[in-house]
Amino acid sequence: MAEHPALDDSVALWSAPAAERAGRPLLILLHGYGADEHDLFGLVPYLPPQFVVAALRAPLAPPFPAPGYSWYPIEGLDGRDATHVTDAASLVVDWIDAVSADSPVGLLGFSQGAAVALQAMRLQPERFAFAVNLSGYATPGALPGDAALAIRRPPVFWGRGTHDDVIPSFLVEHTVMWLPEHADLSGRLYQGLTHSVSEPELDDVRIFLDKQLEHIASDSKT
After folding, report:
1. pLDDT per residue over 134-147, tens digit each?
2. Nearest Cα residue to 57 out of 29, 90, 18
3. pLDDT band at residue 91 under the 50/70/90 scheme
4. Which residue, 43, 47, 96, 202, is the most exposed by fewest CB within 10 angstroms?
5. Locate the Phospholipase/carboxylesterase/thioesterase domain: which residues (predicted)?
6. Is residue 114 within 8 Å of residue 134, measured between CB atoms?
C-alpha cells in the first residue's frame, strides 16, 4: 500500500507574494501523473489575474523510470485504489486549510490532479467554490459528503479530448453519469485532442473562471 506523506509547502509556487494574497480568491493547481508543480503553473498568464494561484507538488514518486510526482499510484495491485485518491485529496484540503482560512477557493486539476480536485470537493462540499476538471474523472465509490454535494451542486468545468486514450473508458463513463448529479456541470469535448490541454480549452476555462469571479463578487455583497 502506498503511503502519503504531507505536502511539501516549501516547493509550492505562488503567483503573488504573501503580502498581496489577503482578501483575494485562491485557485489551487494540481498537476498530473509524472509532472510537478511547474507543469500547470505555466497556465498562470492565461488565468484571470484576480486569483491568487498556488501550484502544489504531489507527494509520491512514480516507479522508475517515470519522472516527476504522483498523487496516487496507478500501477500494481492497488493502482487507482479509491482510498489513495481520498488520502491525496485530504492532504490537499489540509494544506489549503493551513494557508487560507476565509478566502474563496477553487481547484484546477489535470488528469490525476483533476480526480483529486473532485475528491476534495466531496470531502468538504461547502469548502470549495468550484472545480476545473481537465482530462480527469470522478473516482467511483461513495463518500459521506456526496449527498451534501448533490444539494449544493458547485460549478464544475470538465474538458477532455476525443483522442484521449489515457483515462480508462469505464472511468469516463462513470464521470459522465456522476458529475451531472453532483455539480452544475459545464464543459466541452474537444475534437482531436489527446491527453493534453489545448488553446481552445484554455479559452473556455478562462470564460468559466471569469464567471466564477462574478459569482464570488456577488456572494461577497450578500
Report:
1. 999 999 999 999 99
2. 29
3. very high
4. 202
5. 21-211
6. yes
* Mode of pairing for the β-strands spanning 105-110 and 155-161: unpaired
The reply to whether omega before 65 is within 30° of 0 (cis) is yes
The CA distance from 75 to 62, in Å, is 9
DSSP conformation class of 48: -
Q: How far apart are CA 6 and CA 79, in angstroms?
A: 20
Domain 9-221 in CATH: superfamily?
A: Alpha/Beta hydrolase fold, catalytic domain (3.40.50.1820)
Cell of 22: 489577503
Provide the b/e sequence for 85-95 (b: ≥16 CB within 10 Å): bbbbbbbbbeb
Identify the CA nearest to 91 among candidates 143, 28, 43: 28
What the block records as the C-alpha cell of 221 is 455583497
pLDDT 10s digits, 199-212: 999 999 999 999 99
